[in-house]
């Protein structure tokens, strides 16, 4: 156990650790006197103290030990820290190994730089207190807890030489996302993928409570880790010297185990799922900080979580802080100019081996575009609108299959889904690759194997977390999900969108591939699952985020879906939300028209319109089912009011509805007015909650005339047609809406209303018989 | 092992199981010939086959065995099934024990009733295919997976005589929420609370894949369960006779263990956390269904998940279905009239002992109102608006402390929070109760213990799931959460809101206490946590749900928060969302004014207005920080434009903004126009994303004049005042917005704009110095 570190090396590593701790405390507290060259005075201390100390010394300890491991074995390693509140520690280490100054030259490696480093922390126009996009070496925002381990596995997939050291906080370990993330080891292939080394940091406390995993005893905890499929290595202590030795030995053993697992898999083939090592590190919260303040124990309690000495009204607190800072002996760590001493600095790896400068943690640097087959080749051919039916997602599946095939060698594309790839009709992909599976395989299994590139697990959290980790390290992916259940990862989407937004303002962060969602099995076709599976609100959730990073597409048919998907796979730094059904539906546009339509984002469908230069009404729609109902309503209208003039408008790219000042895709007012008119009634059939259309269009000149129908939480297990009826989105209702709003048809309204109710009576019988639902819509030759 | 069941009893239980299975298959398939009195023909089969068979036989097996256990030991037990797709099984069992007919008299216990029972399933205007509010005995919607075990623990809290049998599907076990729910046993007190008996049903497959837990080997699985703190009892097999015996023995053992644990805790006191039993039941998916269809294995594979025989184009499939149905020997199970045979029916418990008629599963039947202290007694006293500061949530904390105290004997109130009760300044509650904690306790711990009624765990999923289970079984609760992270349970909120909406239409579902959220540590005061902690979008998410079940409150100060909280604790069947800050802020209303203001939902603040009969501008606000900025803007305006006439409007109840046709709280148009005028500019400062105000008001006459400021994803770690500046919500911007919109001040705009920019320049210096942020606002005597 004492073999790994010489006494000299241990002493130096301890000094390096002290330096990182000193810089961490300095960031939290100091605005001046960064090297303590003068006695500490109140005016050296920031007026507002913001930051998290408790987790930081442990993160710093692991950093210096991982540095030793990297240097000793020339490892390619990145560092993901779940307890991301420990931002000062990561900033400190990046500074110590020089990458911080490379990214931010004003933060020089001298006294001035130190002072700037300290002042900028948790300061207006400075850096956040958490690990954030501004932190070199990070792919993981430290604000919302629970996603570290999923990110770590995502980063490790298809990176055979990479080891992802992932610190799991014992607080975040209580979250749902983290609790299931341990099972990611059933999806990691030791031959093809890299390794994840989870390090559960038991510092024992959250902000106000002990943690569960620190209070269940060692046996239960190691049972739990074995149950999750890991071999735990326990390191425990509060004497730095002893912990240095045992931790170094533990890391050597873990690395040896990883190497043995990989060697076996790579030389003898992947046969069984290995039992990967993991480390349990139990050290005091706020270790090396003040033992007591005002008579209360700080170190080793939840009181060390944030700022251990929070008030300086008591002058002895200044002395307490000074003593704490001087306990790290800064004069031994920095030279007279304030530069970190060379004999310590050499302990860090160099160049890209530094965890804070590893290109995997700035994935855009490694990003290669996908090789994409020409999507025109997958188009549904048709002799005219409404002449053929197709399942949009099945058509997309063939395209995705060949995207997968074209990039098998590049190993940079994966498909993610919570047990739904086949249900969502993308299973053509399984013709060219398996679903990844490292757990046991039985005879009945189909398309499962260790080399699969389709990631299926019944956890939206894992799908999202893995995909984020995969994208952030410079690869590509596609996530298909039931529309209603994508809300499970609403908060993860928030954090990813915020990450992208922040990166937009950081020049050294290179663009990464967009996060592409396909939401299907959508609200209008939950025939047997009913109310619990009906929720189109994720669109609303997404459009709350910065316009620069979000895009929403509602392709009305398969060819439009192809065009949109191709576009999304080429895009960078966005979250693209695509909503499309999987059921057989009428098709409207040939592929060339689809491309033109999708490029414009919205447009008039002349073939479905008549007299469109001076329409009585604009029938607008967004979404596949609303498009069908709108077109059927148009047929009813021309039958009932032969001389009616109707303009049909379809919207694919929902963002065109916003003013161009609000979203880069927003139509300028002139173009919007050309399409939607400035004074004609607009009956708008929308896939989601109707008020979203109002929210997007309220600044438009004709907004007052826009009348929207959409989902309003009605219906459950029933026929698709009954669903649109119950939500007033059906063709009869849309036709009636139009008639009611056309002034010259005022005399018709009463008769049309009566006719509507008679139709609904028939409809009630009709759905009672549970028959076929969608009358056909074919003939587009206007006779009027 | 063969001691528990006599051969005769085993045979009868097997017959009971066959009856439940027969009725389950009948629901999925048959629209006629319910007793198979004629040879099965295609017209007896539903034209559209919707449902889930795979999990159902296992659920039915457990039901009959739990029935035996209940009868043998006179147990008070409810049944929560995670694999809620197995709806037909629960409906079948409720029908067999008579409670279904009691709730739905048309579903008689004869041939006609059987036919109706079969036809209504997954049929328009019938019942959903999942377990749903319509299912007697259920408190758990079976659509979105992952929440069964958290619901089970919530139901067990404070119900010492109740045992909650909770079936965890091996599919749902992969979700994050379920993966962390196992740890709920660290929060269950065996003396005070009831018991949860988790039964992990390993049927091996999801919709398209094997499950993780079925493919990790028995040792890892039992290690995992021991690591979670349970003692697993494994039951495994595919021979019904053997499984009957081993399952009966396993349940007896589990019950004995539960009773022993409870007896020890109740007689000798709670000393150590017990190792509760749990059962692992491994049986084939779709057990007793077709072995093969079209040459493909069905039973024991994922292909049994939904409808094993899905198409009847092949006429032999009708024979296959008939053989399957007849394998249950319906003629032995039902008499000539179609009634379930008495000698089998007597196996079920009676009255409230039936799991489908247990009042805990219709919690409103048991609901007792909270004893509430008079909230006036906790009011902040003040000599006028803006004369005193208070921390709103701390004031609320004192009230909640006494709510807790007043209901300690009734044991029907708990507070829930993800490690944030103290951070959210509700810690006065800890003066009268501890935080519940059954894991190890150390000397440093404070306010932790086995009798606590504050539920803290770092998992929003567990807080939400426990609270839902607690409410659905007839108790009361309050959930405080950081505003940004409540999105973690956005999907759980969806399902609960849908449950409440559905219950509104089910007469026998009695009203339950509302689910009360307090969102604090909100977007405007994330001074050190920054961007990741800033997200007010949950309001948008909530208002998408049915108006009949959602309420949103933004109290501007502590006294309003008291009034709102009191109201919410008295309300029923809603989700109440309260957003309020925790920081010291100026107070505006004395308690009587606060009550009047909150009852109205919105109103003119005359004391802050002048010339309000004919205002130049309406300055509206919703939320505590926007209210402060609005009032400060008013002070700037009257200084800069002494003769300006300003009306100040504050909105507490956001739902008043909607038309009364859209929400029961909506102001009628007359009252809305009285407050907001029909033609004056309205500058609206809003807590959340600004477009929500447009979405709520777009039908109002003066909507065109409403100009909204709110959060737009700007700012990170910075001062509170800088946050409002960066999002254009600051007092200077609001004042400028007003001046720009008042026609008679057209000549002032240029000077005001210049002044604004000069102010902002000073502001930049100001925040650079990181000083105090919020200038005081006190003097409300208008001089004009």
Helix-strand layout with pairing:
2 copies of one chain form a homodimer.
Chain A: H1 7-29, H2 56-73, E1 76-81, H3 87-96, H4 99-103, H5 111-120, H6 148-156, E2 162-169, H7 176-181, E3 195-202, H8 217-227, E4 230-236, H9 240-268, E5 276-282, E6 292-293, E7 296-297, H10 316-326, H11 330-333, H12 342-345, E8 389-391, H13 392-406, E9 413-417, E10 435-436, E11 448-449, E12 454-456, H14 460-472, E13 476-482, H15 490-503, E14 515-520, H16 538-543, E15 550-553, H17 558-570, E16 575-579, E17 584-586, H18 591-600, E18 602-604, E19 617-622, H19 624-640, E20 646-651, H20 669-676, E21 682-686, H21 691-697, E22 706-709, H22 720-726, H23 731-741, H24 749-768
Parallel strand pairs in A: 1-2, 2-3, 3-5, 4-5, 9-12, 9-13, 10-11, 13-14, 14-16, 15-16, 19-20, 19-21, 21-22
Antiparallel strand pairs in A: 6-7, 8-17, 18-20
Helix pairs in contact in A: 1-2, 1-3, 1-5, 1-9, 2-3, 2-9, 6-14, 13-17, 17-18, 19-23, 23-24
Protein name (chains A, B): Probable phosphoketolase
EC number (chains A, B): 4.1.2.-
GO biological process, one term (chains A, B): carbohydrate metabolic process
What does this structure look like?
- Two copies of one chain form a homodimer.
- Chain A has three domains: about 5-360, Rossmann fold, CATH 3.40.50.970; about 385-585, Rossmann fold (3-Layer(aba) Sandwich), CATH 3.40.50.970; about 615-780, Rossmann fold (3-Layer(aba) Sandwich).
- Helix content of chain A is about 35%, strand content about 15%.
- Chain A has a six-stranded parallel sheet with strand order 12-9-13-14-16-15, with helices on both faces. A five-stranded parallel sheet of chain A has the order 1-2-3-5-4, sandwiched between helices.
- In chain A, helix 1 packs across helix 2 and helix 2 (about 55-75) runs parallel beside helix 3 (about 85-95).
- Chain A is elongated.
- In chain A, about 65% of the residues are buried.
- Chains A and B meet through helix 7, helix 8, helix 14, helix 15 and helix 21 of A and helix 7, helix 8, helix 14, helix 15 and helix 21 of B.
- Chains A, B: Belongs to the XFP family.
- Chains A, B: One of its GO terms (molecular function) is aldehyde-lyase activity.
């Amino acid at each position: 156990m004492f073999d790994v570190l010489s006494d000299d090396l241990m002493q130096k590593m301890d000094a390096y650790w002290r330096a990182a701790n000193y810089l961490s405390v300095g960031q939290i507290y100091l605005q001046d006197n960064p090297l303590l060259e003068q006695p500490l005075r109140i005016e050296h201390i920031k007026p507002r103290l913001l930051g998290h100390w408790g987790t930081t010394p442990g993160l710093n300890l692991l950093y210096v030990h991982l540095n030793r491991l990297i240097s000793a074995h020339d490892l390619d390693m990145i560092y993901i820290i779940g307890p991301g509140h420990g931002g000062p520690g990561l900033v400190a280490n990046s500074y110590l190994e020089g990458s911080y100054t490379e990214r931010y030259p004003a933060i020089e490696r001298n006294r001035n730089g130190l002072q700037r480093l300290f002042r900028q922390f948790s300061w207006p126009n400075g850096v956040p207190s958490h690990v954030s996009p501004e932190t070199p070496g990070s792919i993981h925002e430290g604000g919302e807890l629970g996603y570290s381990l999923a990110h770590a596995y995502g980063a490790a997939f298809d990176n055979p030489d990479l080891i992802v050291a992932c610190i799991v906080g014992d607080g975040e370990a209580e979250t749902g996302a983290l609790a299931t993330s341990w099972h990611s080891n059933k999806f990691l292939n030791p031959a093809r993928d890299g390794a994840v080394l989870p390090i559960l940091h038991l510092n024992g406390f959250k902000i106000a409570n002990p943690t569960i995993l620190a209070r269940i005893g060692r046996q239960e905890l190691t049972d739990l880790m074995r149950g999750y499929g890991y071999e735990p290595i326990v390191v425990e202590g509060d004497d730095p010297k002893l912990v240095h030795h045992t931790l170094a030995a533990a890391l050597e053993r873990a690395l040896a185990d990883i190497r043995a697992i990989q060697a076996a898999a790579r030389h003898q083939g992947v046969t069984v799922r290995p039992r990967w090592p993991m480390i349990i590190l139990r050290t005091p919260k706020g270790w090396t900080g003040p033992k007591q303040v005002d008579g209360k124990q700080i170190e080793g309690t939840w009181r060390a979580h944030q700022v251990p000495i929070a008030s300086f009204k008591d002058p002895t607190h200044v002395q307490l802080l000074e003593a704490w800072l001087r306990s790290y002996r800064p004069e031994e760590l920095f030279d007279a100019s304030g530069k970190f001493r060379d004999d310590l600095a050499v302990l860090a790896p160099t160049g890209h081996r530094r965890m804070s400068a590893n290109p995997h943690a700035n994935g855009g640097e490694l990003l290669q575009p996908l090789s994409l087959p020409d999507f025109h080749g997958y188009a549904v051919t048709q002799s005219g609108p409404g002449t053929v039916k197709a399942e949009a997602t099945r058509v997309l599946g063939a395209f995705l299959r060949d995207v997968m095939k074209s990039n098998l060698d590049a190993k940079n594309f994966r498909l993610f889904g919570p047990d739904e790839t086949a249900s969502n009709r993308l299973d053509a992909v399984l013709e060219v690759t398996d679903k990844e599976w490292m757990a046991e395989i039985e005879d009945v299994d189909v398309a499962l194997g260790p080399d699969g590139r389709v990631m299926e697990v019944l956890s939206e959290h894992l799908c999202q977390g893995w995909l984020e980790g995969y994208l952030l390290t410079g690869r590509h992916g596609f996530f298909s999900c039931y529309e209603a259940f994508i809300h499970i990862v609403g908060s993860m989407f928030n954090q990813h969108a915020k990450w992208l937004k922040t990166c937009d303002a950081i020049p050294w962060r290179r663009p990464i591939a967009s996060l592409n969602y396909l939401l299907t099995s959508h609200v209008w076709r939950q025939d047997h699952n009913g109310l619990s599976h009906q929720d189109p609100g994720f669109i609303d959730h997404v459009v709350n985020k910065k316009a620069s990073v979000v895009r929403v597409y509602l392709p009305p048919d398969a060819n439009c879906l192809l065009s949109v998907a191709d576009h999304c796979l080429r895009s960078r730094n966005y979250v693209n939300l695509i909503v499309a059904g999987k059921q057989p539906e009428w098709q409207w546009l040939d592929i060339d028209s689809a491309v033109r339509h999708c490029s414009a984002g919205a447009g008039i469908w002349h073939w479905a319109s008549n007299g469109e230069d001076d329409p009585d009404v604009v029938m607008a729609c967004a979404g596949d089912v609303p498009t069908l109902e709108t077109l059927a309503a148009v047929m009813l209208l021309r039958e009932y009011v032969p001389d009616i003039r109707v303009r049909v408008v379809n919207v694919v790219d929902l963002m065109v509805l916003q003013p161009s000042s609000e979203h880069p895709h927003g139509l300028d007012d002139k173009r919007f007015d050309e399409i939607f008119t400035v004074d004609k009634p607009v009956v708008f059939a929308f896939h989601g909650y109707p008020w979203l259309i109002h929210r997007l269009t309220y600044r438009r000149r004709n907004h007052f005339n826009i009348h929207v129908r959409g989902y309003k939480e009605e219906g459950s297990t029933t026929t698709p047609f009954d669903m649109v009826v119950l939500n007033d989105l059906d063709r009869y209702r849309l036709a009636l809406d139009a008639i009611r709003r056309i002034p010259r048809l005022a005399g018709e309204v009463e008769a049309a209303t009566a006719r509507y109710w008679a139709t609904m009576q028939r409809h009630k019988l009709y759905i009672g018989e549970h028959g076929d639902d969608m009358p056909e819509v074919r003939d587009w030759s206007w006779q009027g």
